[in-house]
């Protein structure tokens, strides 16, 4: 699945212009009102952004991972709330269906996900189960032709706008083998949402708890049709998502660096531009070098990801995706910190963009596997390798 080079160049140009001309000017509105305006969401639909990763036979654009990372890099250069609107449809919400779903499940859901008419969230985390995802407690009991789901899911991105969830629940005993992935329409009786989470940053993104009380889900909604594969599906989805998040981190590092360079050129102290002081240049140089290192890593791992058969697991690529996620999300944290420093006191004031980007990027080191979980994936792989 891929688009030809010429079509991709046109798409990338359109996204670059969209980011600069449409999204950047709306950043303050999103920060102030904590919502991405509907007309921007409509424009995102028109551009095809909800279907970036879904093959054209199911109504999407069908980008390779390397191409998707380039688009994520562009989208990363503006407030991350915009990307979050499409994020679950492009990544963690849709990919389980695409990788492991039956043909009927793909035909039923993917085209509506690709068009953005159906928002789909990924529901794995629970109050007592975050990093230890194999310990989820949400139960799915087989009753006749249905499963009855009871439990609660925590911090679910886009849940308030979701029409469906790809949701992991326990159909069998303890451990990863007892987990199945379900497609759960959001309007089923017994589903309710918690209050919206008040977050440190990324204003305009929407997360909340999803509560399930005796929710009857047809057994035909088990992803792939066979129970017991949900944990593997979730891990494959997260591997892929880690590369997307890495590209996003690099895009945001680019933006923070651009803001910092612009400020260093116009702010004067001691009779000269602060950017002419070598100590300020050192901060810019460190950020530039780390950005190149991170972005090179993302591109190279994404190309390797594209070489493996679609939907399969490759331990080497998985380890490298964890390296990319760990390095780039930590890197953008350091770039944001230097960005604030270059701005001096202004860096602490909300009117200047680096203050909010500093808060926004903090999340990237937490979700889709914390930095410590990436270290565990990498370390375990190294110890087990022949
Ligand atoms: C804004 C936001 C959006 C999110 N969106 C989604 C979503 O859409 N869907 C979804 O399912 N989840 C989502 N999450 C949940 C997110 O993936 C989890 O918060 C994350 O995986 C960490 O889990 P936790 O919060 O339970 O932390 P914990 O697992 O409790 O971790 C706490 C600390 O302990 C460390 N730790 C844990 N285990 C180990 C270990 N074995 N070794 C060393 N250190 C360890 C962690 O690294 C961390 O520093 C979201 C979270 C946030 C904040």
Features:
three-stranded mixed beta sheet, Butyryl-Coa Dehydrogenase, subunit A, domain 1, single chain, four-stranded antiparallel beta sheet, 3 domains, Butyryl-CoA Dehydrogenase, subunit A, domain 2, 14% strand, alpha+beta, binds flavin-adenine dinucleotide, 9 strands, Butyryl-CoA Dehydrogenase, subunit A, domain 3, 386 residues
Report the major sheet. Answer: 4 strands, antiparallel
What form results from the Cα inertia axes?
globular
The secondary structure category is alpha+beta
C-alpha-based Rg, rounded: 21 Å
Corresponding CATH architecture of the largest domain: Up-down Bundle
Report on the architecture of this protein:
Helix content is 51%, strand content 14%. The chain has 386 residues and is of the alpha+beta class. The protein folds into three domains: 5-115, Acyl-CoA dehydrogenase/oxidase, N-terminal domain (Butyryl-Coa Dehydrogenase, subunit A, domain 1, Orthogonal Bundle), CATH 1.10.540.10; 120-227, Butyryl-CoA Dehydrogenase, subunit A, domain 2, CATH 2.40.110.10; 231-384, Butyryl-CoA Dehydrogenase, subunit A, domain 3 (Up-down Bundle), CATH 1.20.140.10. A hairpin with a 2-residue loop joins strand 2 and strand 3. The protein binds flavin-adenine dinucleotide (FAD). Residues 121-125, 130-131, 155-157, 199, 207, 363, 366-368, 370, 372-373, 376 line the site of flavin-adenine dinucleotide. Flavin-adenine dinucleotide binds at residues 121-125, 130-131, 155-157, 199, 207, 363, 366-368, 370, 372-373, 376.
